[in-house]
Write a structure and sequence with these properties.
The complex is a heterodimer of chains A (289) and B (275). By secondary structure, chain A is of the alpha/beta class. Chain A has one domain (15-250): 2-enoyl-CoA Hydratase, Chain A, domain 1, CATH 3.90.226.10. Chain A is 40% helix and 14% strand. Chain A is built from eleven helices and nine strands. Chain B has two domains: 9-243, 2-enoyl-CoA Hydratase, Chain A, domain 1, CATH 3.90.226.10; 245-275, no CATH class. In chain B, 42% of the residues lie in helices and 17% in strands. Chain B has helices at residues 9-18, 66-82, 104-108, 111-127, 142-147, 170-176, 181-190, 198-202, 221-239, 252-257, 259-272, and strands at residues 23-24, 31-38, 41-48, 91-97, 132-141, 154-158, 164-166, 209-211. Classes of the chains: A alpha/beta (289), B alpha/beta (275). Chains A and B meet through helix 3, helix 4, helix 5, strand 8 and helix 6 of A and helix 2, helix 3, helix 4, helix 5 and helix 6 of B.
Chain lengths: 289, 275
């Protein structure tokens, strides 16, 4: 084994997988050591009022971990979605936890006490068992992100392996900066939903390689729909999060770059849609857009 | 879905409320924009309508696709910049959107960002002081509604069997939750947030007003005047309050059905600063 390969091997072994962590560990791994303080934790027992009516056991934190702490010594808020519970879906309570915490951060920002908001997004979108209350909560999350971004950057991480879908993919797109891994997927409509609504000829939801090539983290980064592509390592991601906040507010938020989006779409022929590689040439770094 | 079933309510109400006055040239043709009078004040009306010639095949039935979401963002932002140094015109989103466009091309091209750009524009208009009103005249579904209407200061809906709000179409929702459509409908009768109809939605407390007794499909002059009056009243109400979405938690219905949303916020505030 040559020296470089040995170094790579050691680095691999020294990594601490972020993807394998549960939401609470993920939030803790992002904050400065010993500053994690959970809000509305499991002992507060605020559960979904709707799941028990449908014979589903409700978890005591409704699948969202909120924590205050610091990032490089600056006050921060982390909202981490637990993908192992109901697919990370957004119900009334989990959605209200995220929206409510962002609203409180906004209140502090308005009073001159900036709070850095970090979203760890791992979610299939609306929890269909609470359908319209999940959708309403997502609209409130969008509203809070957009209002907060006037004061502080809002940073999102999609690490995998659930990915980030539905209305929450819009929340990811509203983030000032978005960090992904190769294991991440980011898309509006989940592959199963597209297959159901548009037919298997449109998309075969079981073709995993195809799906990752369309909406995987690497592709999203290559065409400018994410700002950083990282290895699955908690320390690497924590450092990138600090970088993202240190850069301050972007000149123009991604979701406000409307003329750029119009130009990008103008060069697409929908009757001969580009494949993933062609799109990298059209939209990737160095392309005229 | 055949073209006969294409939702035309967006077009019908757009034309009824604007009288086709002040139409703003728009690409794609599936997004209709006009600046027309509402109670003597110039108001921007915006609708997404079907266009069977849409260049994106998955956006021909009135869906919010890539171009539509982008155009919504463009035309809302143009109103914001034009009014930067004068009175902020009201913006009315006429909502009849069956879904966002479902397609692999749409996903590759990032329809999530296009929809986010539209939501961003509407929310930015609201924060800039434009009264933003969503008028639900047909379907208000999922990501399409998030992009076109859900960032409004106030949501108004016509009362009628075809007016509905939901997170996912029935067939797909049944597949994802591994239930039959009949089971899903049964649950909707017991559990208000799972239902599709506008009466159940009204029970959630998110609606500013359910406008009853109006012919939603073929409105007469009296119907149109009635809706105009309600839009005007909503604009007045918005101008007298904060530009956030707090009113969605303040109604008597919200205090009952969204009690958990309110309780979460109350207890979060208690715990926000360390003891």
């Amino acid at each position: 084994m040559n020296g470089a390969a040995a170094r790579d091997g050691r680095r691999f072994l020294a990594r601490s997988s972020f993807i394998e962590m549960a939401a609470r560990e993920r939030a803790r791994a992002m904050l400065d050591a010993d500053t994690f303080r959970e809000l509305l934790g499991p002992f507060d027992r605020i559960k979904s009022p709707w799941l028990p009516l449908q014979g589903i056991v409700a978890q005591a934190d409704d699948g969202v971990v909120l924590a205050r702490g610091t990032l490089d010594g600056r006050p921060a808020l982390v909202a981490a979605i637990e993908s192992a519970y109901q697919g990370g879906s957004i119900g009334e309570v989990s959605g209200a936890k995220i929206a409510g915490a962002l609203e409180l951060a906004l209140g502090d920002c308005k009073q001159g006490r900036p709070v850095l908001p970090l979203l760890l997004l791992e979610t299939g979108g609306v929890r269909l068992q609470e359908a319209n209350l999940g959708l309403a909560a997502i609209a409130e999350i969008h509203a809070a992100i957009i209002a907060l971004r006037r004061h502080v950057p809002v940073v999102g991480v999609v690490a995998g392996t659930v990915g980030c879908f539905g209305g929450m993919s819009m929340a990811a797109a509203l983030c000032s900066r978005l960090i992904v891994t190769r294991q991440a997927r980011l898309g509006m409509n989940g592959p199963e939903v597209i297959e159901q609504e548009a037919g298997i000829a449109e998309l075969d939801a079981s073709d995993r390689a195809l799906i990752w090539s369309l909406i995987g983290g690497e592709q999203r980064y290559a065409v400018g729909l994410a700002d950083a592509l990282l290895e699955d390592d908690a320390a690497t991601i924590a450092a990138a999060v600090r970088d993202a906040f240190a850069q301050g507010l972007p000149q123009l938020e991604r979701s406000a770059q409307v003329e750029h989006l119009v130009r990008r779409l103008a060069c697409i022929d929908p009757l001969r849609p580009p494949d993933a590689n062609t799109l990298r040439r059209l939209w990737g770094e160095g392309a005229v857009n | 879905m055949s073209t006969q079933q294409c939702p035309e309510r967006g077009r019908i109400w757009f034309e009824a409320l604007t009288g086709s006055d002040g139409v703003v040239e728009c690409t794609p043709r599936s997004v209709r924009v006009a600046d027309a009078a509402l109670g003597g004040e110039q108001t921007r009306f915006i609708a997404v309508v079907p266009d069977t010639h849409n260049r994106f095949p998955r956006a021909r039935q009135g869906e919010v696709g890539l171009d539509e979401a982008c155009a919504l963002a463009v035309h809302v932002r143009r109103a914001i910049s034009a009014d930067r140094h004068r009175a902020r015109r009201p913006i009315v989103a006429i909502v009849d959107v069956a879904s966002q466009a479902y397609g692999s091309c749409e996903e590759l091209l990032g329809i999530h960002l296009a929809c986010a750009a539209a939501a961003d524009a509407y929310a930015s208009a609201r924060l800039a002081g434009h009264p933003v009103i969503a008028l639900l005249v047909g379907k208000a579904m999922s990501g399409a509604f998030l992009a076109h209407g859900y960032q409004a200061n106030r949501i108004l809906a016509l009362d009628g069997p075809e007016v509905m709000v939901h997170a996912m179409g029935k067939q797909a929702a049944a597949r994802v939750t591994r239930r039959s459509v009949a089971e899903l409908e049964g649950l909707g009768e017991k559990i208000a947030p799972m239902a599709y109809d506008i009466h159940s939605y009204a029970r959630l407390g998110l609606l500013h007003k359910l406008i009853e007794g109006v012919n939603a499909e073929a409105p007469g002059q009296a119907d149109v005047e009635r809706v105009r009056a309600e839009l005007l009243a909503a604009v007045v109400d918005v101008r007298a309050s904060t530009p956030d979405l707090a009113s969605r938690l303040a109604s008597p219905a919200a205090r009952q059905t969204r009690a958990a949303s309110i309780e979460v916020r109350r207890r979060l505030a208690e715990q926000w600063d360390a003891a």
